[in-house]
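Annotated sample (chain length 147).
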Amino acid sequence: MKLSPVAIFAYRRPKHLQKVLEALSQEPEAPDTHLILFLDGAKSGADRRDVVAVQAVAAQAKGFRSLEIHAAEKNLGLARSITEGVSKMCRDFKRTIILEDDIVPRQGFLSFMNEALKNIERNRVSCRFPDTPIRWTPRLLLTAFCP
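Output written by the structure step:
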């Protein structure tokens, strides 16, 4: 089965991002998973240090089929960052897994998500979100929040 890529959105929390990357890299599917990171830029000089630290953590991500980093030069804000990143994922991939930097997945997460997306595709289920500028269909999107 072709595995879905994973996108992670991060901003100013290097320790959070590190935990997410460590958990994902331990999954058996990680070596076959394309990882895409969307890193928002600093709002001000005070944020710069944390943003640079997040970028350093992102650059050290290992254990995945490939790593793609999209680091914004300036702060896009949460809504714009996620809207643009999710839109890119939906344009580029048939299905995708989306996480934020404070969602540490449990063991078995990638297997579960890939199987769920495969089942959704097989059963021709699609996701539609009203009143959103993002065109979700025919792309499939499933977001999971794991404690």
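Annotation: The first helix runs from residue 14 to 25.
Annotation: The two ends are 27 Å apart (CA to CA).
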